[in-house]
Every structure is written in structure tokens, then in C-alpha cells.
Task: structure prediction
Amino acid sequence: MTEHFGLADAFLVLTGSVERNVQSISDGVEDALNDAGVRTIRREGRESGRWVLLDFGDLIVHVFHQEERDYYQLERLWQDCPVIDVTAWLDAPAAAAAPAAASE
Result:
């Protein structure tokens, strides 16, 4: 992504079904990355729960309400960028993933 957007190496785009779900997802992502030693540089949009942006420097996380994700279609905007398959990380139990993240 760096070739197309010089401010980050990757975007992570997530979706929640209601405002509270968007807030909870963003809280969970931020807490997990902070616990892993990744500092939050900037956070925007949490109060509304429609589109939360979390900036971790090399990683920018977008947590959308489904309606906003459909409207803004970031995937279409950044379609020339490579996609990183994270399904293996999502399927792994949290306990099994934690030691691997800690050892890096």
C-alpha cells in the first residue's frame, strides 16, 4: 500500500452492524494492539459509531457501520493495492495467537 498511499503500509477494514458494535470492535482492536506494544497515534469517529478510524502509524484501521462501508467503498478506491489474507489469524484461537505475537 505504501506505493499508493505514503502514510501507511496497510489498511484494515472492518464492519459492525450497529453503532455500539462498531465502537466495541474499535475498542477491541485498539486494546489488543496497545497490549501488544503498538501505540495509537490518532483516533477519530468513536463517539458517532458510524466510522471509527484508528491510526497506528504503519497500520490504519477503519471500522465502519455497514451503511457507511457500502457508501464509501474503500475497497474500490484502493483496488490497485495488494490484499493481505488475514483469515488464518481470524480463525486462530486468541490464546494460540498471543504467544506468536509476543515473540516477534
